[in-house]
Amino acid sequence: MALKIASRFRRLLQRPGSIDLGPYERLTQLVGEAEESVQPLTDEELTESVEELRTTGGLHEDEQIEFLALAREAANRAIGERAFDGQVVGALAMLQGRIVEMATGEGKTLAGAIAAAGYAIGGRKVHVLAVNDYLAKRDAEWMGPVYELLGVTVSHVGQVSTPEERREAYQAEVCYVPVNEIGFDVLRDRLVTDVADRVTVEADVALVDEADSVLIDEARVPMVLAGATRTEALDDDVVQIVRTLRAGVDYEIDGDGRTVALTDRGTDKVEQALGARAQEAASEAAASEAAAADDLETGSSETDESATQDAVTEDATEDATEDAVTEDATEDAAGGDSETDSVTADVVAEPEFNLYADENVDRLTQINVALHAEVLLRRDVDYLVRDGKVSLINNNRGRVAKLQRWPDGLQAAVEAKEAVPVSDSGEVLDSITVQALVKRYKTLCGMTGTAVVVGESLQEFYEVDVAVVPPNKPNVRKDDQDRLYLTVEQKNEALVKHIGVVHESGRPILIGTHSVEESEQLSDKLEAAEITHVVLNAKNDAEEAAIIAEAGVPGTVTVSTQMAGRGTDIRLGGRDESKDKEKAIELGGLYVIGTGLHASRRLDDQLRGRAGRQGDPGGTLFFASLADELVTRYSVSSGLRPHPDDTGRLTDRKSVAMLEHAQRVADGANAELHRTTWQYNRLTGQQRAILLETREKVLTEDLAATELAERAKERYDELVDEIGEDVVKDAARRIALGHLDRRWTDHLAYLADLREGIHLRSLAGGIVHLKPIDEFNKSAIASFDSLIEDSWKDAAETFGTAEITADGLDEEASGIPRPTATWTYLINDNPFGTEADRILGRLRNAIKPESVSEPEEILDEEFDEDDLPEELRDADDSDDSEDADEAEAGDDDEKSKKKD
Question: Is 197 part of a structural domain of the chain?
Fold first, then answer.
């Protein structure tokens, strides 16, 4: 009754998650009644009964009832799991195109399999989109016996699947595939020059597992198909120069920690260093030319003498340069005084090397990406270094992001920073976002444990509603109030102490951390406290299933980096519930501890959901501090007057409200970033659709032959007479496809550069504000208007001189070579920032918590700002002069490092 009242109340407020489950519950009762009639059937008879329901127009209500009764019986026989009523309700909701919210451990996998089979029986092809290879393979094999008994074909695709294996797998009625793999296959299929090379089939039904993670979190990370061009190594000079720069003096980081820029002093320092190196290079070149001239005039003996002299000159030049750089670095390290700074400024006031000159654009770009890599990207937080390679970390899942990389220049900068071999770079041939990929499907549905929180986003971006399915057994988990501390050190001290107390009782503990770095630091503290534990993070994610499955055993302490999408239930007593399950229940069940709040409440709920599975007891507790990145990045300290106790714990309403406010701002910023990403990609998607329509006609029809016969009639007729029409048509098709693909690749490169600097357009309008997205669209439309016509002109020109023989077109000799190699990866979209990077600043001003806007009256003598963590002290109150700021540069450097 309470659930029905809550559901009606949400509908009244028109809030997400308000889908009425009444019709589904009524049908579920009818399914239960029909179940008795199918139980006496043999396996063969059950399969035949399902076969009789097959149609091409989808299952009607009566047919759905009969099918679900058969599917429930098939699951019971095949894998020993009879679907609960909640699972049947979930399957029905998915068959109606809903995103279903079901708590962890409530059987989403089986509910999804039943829904997928229902679509297949109705004549549809289903792609079950998983978050990774492991889950796609596991679920396809786990549910395989159920599909077999229902007479439905099932398959799975993984990262190591060959093209032929992929082609065969996609022919199955239900195919389990990681969302990235289907995206990459779609991109590759868009560039084939022969229909037989395609592997995918027409997009029909997408059933998304971990729907919130895939549709929301992954929607900001485009999938990319690249073609080999070159290796883009970063000059070692640039790396060494950037490492000498100091925070707060030579460069500044924006308040959000998303972008970094050189100061005037930093620019002078870089120009001086690059100028010295340029002068050194010029001296070396002059010396080399002189040596060559002497060699020609006086012979080898004199050349040897000259070479010796050149070496001495070169050494002297290098010594002088090193002395200059060392002297500059020494002055910088000492902080200097205003007089010294003035002298330094005079020395570099007119540098010989202008970093912003047109001819030095490449150097400027290298400096920027090297600075970004050095300052903003953190090892063991943003990436790992293992096996001689830089591997990015997926912040949403705490795993290594396979095949994910930054844009080529930044990727090379990080590799240079870590002194590992530079990976191949290439040009982007095509890209697609998860949102564009999913919207290709005629029907979208899915399941997850946390959908209501992002219900508005799901409706806005995908036009799907959320159906919340109540648990099979009431949730008896106890969620304790968050514990807030003043500093990170005080939080960690209390955290480890609390873990020790709980561990002494033998209760199983799962600890959720935010990063690899944090999990390893916590592991060190637990070792020091002599608390036995296991660690699961991006460095050993291959062992995750085994580690997580045993987290419910009494006495176990498991430290995990992110729990979203782990896909493994935590059963009390271990995987088979045979290791002291009753003792675990007596101790209160699994105890989940969070080391800090996430940027989204949804991620907190995912971690909490690991405890209290299917009516089991459980508990959760989150620790946080005012110095956590969530607070320092997404909130403000104005008006805050905390009063911690002896342990540093804060319980006052305003401090707690500040923590909640920071999480709301972070949620809003991420939602707006998703919205902005979609806005910038929407027009590109429309242009891509136009191009693909033309490309499809070229690929499957005789459009290329028709066009080129008109544009180069004499050449066309001549070739037909010489080598036959079929060969000429094939050559025309390949030429046309080559130029369409070439033009599209160049267009994508232009759009990438355009978006990188489009926010500057808003500064050019004076009092008239120019919206960056509008300016982007104008330029993008103008660039695309003539793209297809220009492609045909290029094709006609190439056709006139192409090497075409009876053996076909020689693409290399004709000037339209295909990429020698292609590869796929995911890319962190616009790491240098766009208009979206200013969203947070606007949100900070727009969303002000009551606790900040209405500070309590506290006497000045009762509060010392030094009590605040240094990350939260109000910098605006300082009236110090520039000289004073300069003197404290060393301290500022340390503060920036801590903040970063």
Answer: yes
Residue pLDDT, tens place only, 555-597: 999 998 865 555 567 889 988 888 999 999 999 999 999 999 9
Strand, coil or helix: 542: helix
Question: What are the two backbone dihedrals, phi and then psi, of residue 380, each rounded to the nearest 5 degrees?
Answer: 70, 5
DSSP 8-state code for residue 80: S
Which amino acid belongs to residue 764? Answer: A
Residues 590 and 559 reside in one and the same domain: yes
Phi first, then psi, for residue 126 (nearest 5°) are -120, 130
- Exposed, middle or buried, 264 (CB in 10 Å: 0-12/13-18/19+)? exposed
421 CB-contact burial (10 Å; exposed 0-12 / middle 13-18 / buried 19+): exposed
Three-state SS for 580? coil
The closest of 549, 564, 442 to 514, measured between CA atoms, is 564
Cα–Cα distance measured from residue 680 to residue 693, given in angstroms and rounded to the nearest whole number: 21
SS3 label, residue 472: coil
Summarize the annotated binding site as residue ranges: 87, 105-109, 569
Per the DSSP assignment, residues forming a β-bridge with 466 are: 99
The secondary structure element, H or E, covering residue 747 is helix 725-757
Considering the domain architecture, whether residues 618 and 716 belong to the same structural domain is answered as no
Identify the domain containing residue 809 by its residue range.
701-815
How confident is residue 281, by pLDDT bands cut at 50, 70 and 90?
low
Bridge partners of residue 247, in order along the sequence: 251
For residue 409, being part of any structural domain is answered with yes
pLDDT reading at 320 higher than 60: no
Binding residues for ATP: 87, 105-109, 569
| pLDDT per position as a tens digit, 778-827 | 999 999 999 999 999 999 999 999 999 999 999 989 988 887 777 777 66
- How many domains is the chain partitioned into structurally? 4
Tell me, yes or no, whether 616 and 635 share the same domain: yes
Q: From start to end of 95-222, where are the E strands? A: 99-101, 126-130, 154-156, 174-178, 205-209
- Identify whether 875 is part of a domain: no
762 SS3 class = helix
* Residue pair 121/67 in contact by the 8 Å Cβ criterion: yes
Q: pLDDT tens, 700-728?
A: 999 999 999 999 999 999 999 999 999 99
Burial profile 379-391: b = 16 or more Cβ within 10 angstroms, e = fewer: ebbbbbbeeeebb
SS3 of 650-710: ECCHHHHHHHHHHHHHHHHHHHHHHHHHHHHHHHHHHHHHHHHHHHHHHHHCCHHHHHHHH
Q: CA–CA distance from 536 to each of 303, 609, 811 (Å)?
A: 64, 18, 50
What distances in angstroms separate CA 221 from CA 79, 257, 313, 850, one per listed residue?
37, 19, 52, 35
895 Cβ contact list (under 8 Å, min separation 6): 248, 870, 871
Residue 257 gets the label, from left (phi > 0), alpha (psi -120 to 50) or beta, of: left
User: Is there a domain that residue 644 lies in?
Assistant: yes
Q: What is the CATH number of the domain that holds 358?
A: 3.90.1440.10
The C-alpha atoms of residue 189 and residue 197 are separated, in whole angstroms, by 7
Contact 821, 228 (CB under 8 A): yes
Centroid of chain to Cα 285: 46
Residue 347 and residue 802: Cα distance in Å, rounded? 59
